[in-house]
Amino acid sequence: MRKSGGRRTKTGLRAFRTESHRLLETARRCYEARAWGDAFDALQQADASVPLDRDDLERLAWSAGLVGKDDVFLGALERLHKACVGLDEHARAARAAFWIGFRLLSLGSRSGATGWLARAARLVEHVEETCAERGYLLLPTVYRELAQGSDAEAEAAAREAAAIGERCRDGDLVALARQLESRAQLGQGRSASGLALLDEVMVATTSGELSPLVTGIVYCSAIDTCHQFCALDRAREWTSKLASWCEQQPQLVTFTGLCLIHRTEIMQLCGDWNDAIEEVRQICERLNEGDPEIFGDACYQQAELFRLRGDVAAAEDAYCRASENGREPQPGLALLRLAQGQPDEAIHAVRRVLSTTRANWQRARLLPAFVEIALAAGQIEEADKASRELDAIARELGTEILDAMAAHARGAVALAAGDARSASEPLRHAFGVWHRAGAPYIAARIRVLLGRAFLALGDRDGAALEVAAARKVFEQLGATSDLERLPADTAQDATLAPASAAGAEQSAKRPRETTHGLSAREIEVLRLVARGMTNKAIAIQLFLSERTVDRHVSNIFAKIDVASRAAATAFAYESGIA
Q1: What is the pTM of this model?
Q2: Other residues' Cβ atoms within 10 Å of the Cβ of residue 241
């Protein structure tokens, strides 16, 4: 019986080993095929049977990282680190410690990250020759210098890390270091060299020369850099390539959320609003707040689309969810407040964010909205100051889109100050850049300003053509808020001609007076008064002079027999006008 039992035990052990071997072979095949989920499952099953060796621990770590299993990713690297330390493989142990610290930094665990990075640095001291790990350990320093605005110091550290990578023939390190070096150069206003360096990095990234995890990191970092410095042509190209890379690996989880958010931003810019709204809805449902940082970005993007479509309640809710998940809701929320007729609240919000924002590229994202809001609030001098700052940043950073943003702001300020002639040239320049960039919404908004400028210069036909073109774009996109701000009764106020023959026919058929004795234009003005807007803000929104608005308000008060704006507001709500 003992012999028989022994035979059964040996047979069972052989079967057990055979099954473990089969799982490991399956896991390795799946790993090579980039079926990350299958590789992860098979490695975990094998690990439950027999301890994984160092190579398989590394495979488990990377596959876990690529399917979003941070706990397993960190645990496998800790085991790999321990095993390598026990065998005096100091460089490999240091690299495992680096990746643990690097990931903990991104997760916000600063103390844990510092400890692991210090351990990696201590291990590297035992390696006599130059090793790539010395270069990797420079990367957190580069990130820190960039965050502090010390771009020159960041560039020097990144260049040193890249040089180590080249000597050690470590393509991953070279790519990580050079994309950070390019960001540092861009931050110093050296856009030509910075973008050229980023292009070089992306050659290695898109041609499959890097490891999968580093490929995703470099893609996302490069696209983020392009968004920060408004290199929209590259952002569009690399977002498309990142999406293709993700689609080739159906089981990939990490990077897909951020990839899709970047894609919706590009879709919004290009005017594909319907698809963008649906895609960002799916992102929010899939993430379900699982990754607060990415979920917050998704909610903000969703809010922006709702705001542009005029869905105030949905936009408000999405901005709140973005804020709850750590995403600053400005300047979008302030622009929503402006659309609600609350310019003072809007300007205070953007002032608050600007007061705590130091980096030029971040201020450049806020200043265009601040200019728009300040003009709506009648603060022309403040808008002019912000426009001048944006112009200085555009000259310093040197990208075409930033230059167009500055020109747009400069033209809007000149127009609000009554200098239509000075407004026309920068507005024309800004329109040309955005039109070539394939951004129909922004280009249409500039055309509305051009229409106002042309009208002030006596070119009624030119004004009508600009506004007609803008109206067509707003209608196609469903930009209801912008459509509402276009003049409704163009004939009466002799401001801008109807957008089309159909528009002219509708204008001719529109009743000249309502049952309350108010004209269509006076109804418009009364609605804006009821929203709490000043006469100056109403004038800007309706493309009228402030004197014309004053006259309309006086006529409204006389016709409905009230003596104050509060009484006019009450009348508007009681009569169903507001």
Answers
A1: 0.71
A2: 14
